[in-house]
Design goal:
CATH superfamily: Thiamin diphosphate (ThDP)-binding fold, Pyr/PP domains
InterPro entries: 2-oxoacid:Fd_oxidoreductase, THDP-binding, TPP_enzyme_TPP-bd
Domain Thiamine pyrophosphate enzyme TPP-binding: 55-202
CATH architecture: 3-Layer(aba) Sandwich
Strand order of the largest sheet: 2-1-3-4-8-7-10-9
Number of strands: 10
Shape: globular
Organism: Thermococcus paralvinellae
CATH class: Alpha Beta
Number of helices: 11
Strand content: 15-25%
Keywords: Oxidoreductase
Protein name: 2-oxoacid:ferredoxin oxidoreductase subunit beta
Order of helices and strands: HEHEHEHHEEEHEHEHEHHEH
């Protein structure tokens, strides 16, 4: 019997972390697959990466699953830790992978100000509309009218539009896709990893166990069909009213621009004040 062909992306996974602890049908595996493909297609050496996560289901994508130097941090503080890594090791490609509750809820202030500072880190924010690991509570991204354990009748708050907020805050690159748009997700991750400055890829992801079953979508495929039915390209969304966009997912690239980057500006300042090159400067002694 011929030996089974091994999955090519498996070389980017920690074998001791398998089999997966993610719930059946979770979109986290799709995001991990997309990230591994982006790294592979760019031919990036995982040894040049530092992958940072916070706490939550999506934080597992970085730690323990991805085979690179990883930093599993406290809840809501992934970007703060990643900023320290980037300032101390500016030659490293620093990537944060975590969920909407961790990055946009508890860590929302860090997310906004990292974009404002334009720190050269890539954030892959997995948005499943809910606090999935801790019991299915309402999140800042939960759609209006949706049910969660803490909004059992319906959510009366409007969700935070993460990609739009981070684009306005000053990031160099921002995109949003769903796990039903895998190829576009991979391409945006590749662009984000190559941008100089703060980059964010928001990956809207299915959570059939906590979000789906409370909102009449118990099967993962039902959530994926919901994504496809309600996704609006950003070019079309620009000509639609706020009322028309209620409950829709605006997908595509929001910004792709060049701005001064925090770490480079910091090292320039250090050199101006001391006459010495900062860490990572190839002209340093």
């Amino acid at each position: 019997m011929a030996e089974k062909t091994k999955y090519k992306m498996a070389r980017y996974l920690r074998k001791e972390a398998l089999p997966t602890a993610l719930c059946p049908g979770c979109g986290g595996g799709t995001v991990l697959n997309a990230f591994a493909n982006a790294i592979d297609q760019l031919k990036l050496d995982p040894r040049d990466l530092v992958v940072v996560s916070g706490i939550g289901c999506s934080a597992w994508i970085a730690s323990p699953y991805f085979l690179a130097d990883t930093l599993h941090t406290t809840h809501g503080r992934a970007i703060a830790f990643a900023t320290g890594v980037k300032v101390g090791l500016p030659d490293k490609k620093v990537v944060v992978i975590s969920g909407d509750g961790d990055l946009a809820g508890i860590g929302g202030n860090h997310l906004i100000h990292a974009a404002r500072r334009n720190i050269d880190i890539t954030v892959i924010l997995v948005n499943n509309f809910i606090y999935g690991m801790t019991g299915g509570q309402v999140a800042p991204t939960t759609p209006f009218g949706a049910r969660t354990t803490t909004t059992p009748y319906r959510n009366i708050e409007h969700p935070l539009n993460i990609a739009e907020v981070i684009a306005e805050a000053g990031a160099s690159y921002v995109a949003r896709w769903t796990t039903a748009h895998v190829y576009q997700l991979i391409e945006s991750m590749k662009k984000a990893l190559q941008v100089k400055g703060f980059s964010l890829v928001e990956a809207i992801s299915q959570c059939p166990v906590q979000f789906g079953r409370r909102n009449k979508m118990k099967e993962p495929a039902e959530m994926l069909r919901w994504f496809l039915k309600n996704s609006i390209p950003i070019s079309k969304a620009k000509n639609m009213s706020r009322e028309e966009l209620e409950g829709k997912f605006v997908i595509g690239e929001f910004v792709n621009r060049q701005r001064p980057e925090f770490t480079e500006e910091l090292n320039k300042l250090i050199e101006e004040l001391t006459g010495q090159s900062g860490p990572g400067d190839e002209n340093a002694d």
